[in-house]
Amino acid sequence: MADAGELTRRSPKRLRAPVIIARLDELYDGGVVELDWTTHFELLVATILSAQSTDKKVNEVTKQLFVRYPGPEAYVSADPEQVQREIYPTGFYRQKTRSLQAMSQALLERHDGQVPLTMAELVALPGVARKTANVVLGAAAPEAHIADRDAGIAVDTHVKRLSRRFAFTRWNDPVKIEGDLMKLLPKAQWPSASLSIILHGRRVCDALRPRCADCVVERLCPSSQLAGRRDLAGQARSMGGG
Ligand code: SF4
User: Fold this and answer.
1) Are 186 and 177 within 8 A, CB to CB?
2) pLDDT at position 1
3) Does 6 score more than 60 pLDDT?
4) Which of 106, 136, 124 is nearest to 45 (CA)?
5) pTM, rounded to two decimals
6) Which entry of 55, 156, 206, 231 is annotated as an active-site residue?
7) Mutate to test the pocket of ligand 1, among 23, 198, 218 (most ligand atoms within 8 A of CB)
8) Which residue, of 79, 112, 147, is where some domain finishes?
9) Neighbours of 180 (CB within 10 A)
10) Is residue 189 pLDDT above 50, yes or no?
11) 35 CB under 6 A from ligand 1?
């Protein structure tokens, strides 16, 4: 890794990227999932529910949900309309109910009710997209995530925005952004990278009003408003907060 003291916002992105992530990892304690969970199954359920929702809302819902539905058997035997009512506040409740019940059924049929900890098996579950699988694997088993040849970096709206602001990518497409990040970062940083970037996006690098004066990587950021730079995220308004 380059000597952080010698780098500036004009340094090549391949030198800035690992240093920026290391600094954010330090600040956010290695990147933590702000969803509440105690088992891998709860983590998977919460991550599915977090799509198009906030972690705060999901945590409010899962407090009761995890008591009523402690494992995949409970979802499979549940009345779908009842599950829909319980998860309604997280949005997209019909689709999420279908995902939770189909995912639970697949866990019982293929994995004895346990959550598998490989990318290939996770993305083969109904309702589990690559982003969800990366979050679950990175949070549940960072070592397995690093060793998994199919693993990558979860890209959500915050990772999109900050990757563009840092000039790590010029794309808007999550798959292309993930590819650019995987080229720039050492594999050891993959599990924490998106979690730390997400926390920085939520707490400091807001879509509409980034707090550049309070930003620990301001000196390395080509979009710093403190330095009078243009926001490389471009249409930040239409990209939303999430
Ligand atoms: S300097 Fe500003 S734009 Fe760059 S990451 Fe920090 S808060 Fe975001």
Assistant:
1) no
2) 72
3) yes
4) 136
5) 0.88
6) 156
7) 218
8) 147
9) 18
10) yes
11) no
Q: Express each pLDDT in 64-79 by its tens digit.
A: 999 999 999 999 999 9
Residues 49 and 100 in one domain: yes
pLDDT for 16: 98
Domain that holds residue 158: 4-30+152-239
Residues 48, 133, single domain; the answer is yes
Q: What angle do CA 218, 221, 222 make, to 5 degrees?
A: 135
Q: Pull the structure tokens for residue 133.
A: 């699988």
Tell me the two tokens of residue 93. Answer: 């409740």
> Per the domain annotation, does 35 fall within a domain?
no
**Is residue 211 predicted with pLDDT exceeding 60?**
yes
- The mean pLDDT value for 18-24 works out to 97
Q: How confident is the model at residue 33 (pLDDT cuts 50, 70, 90)?
A: confident
Q: Which of 205, 237, 239 is nearest to 223 (CA)?
A: 205
Atom 2 of ligand 1: nearest residue by CA position: 212
- Total number of domains constituting the chain: 2
Is 183 among the residues known to form the active site?
A: no
Helix, strand and coil in the chain, % to nearest 5: 60, 0, 40
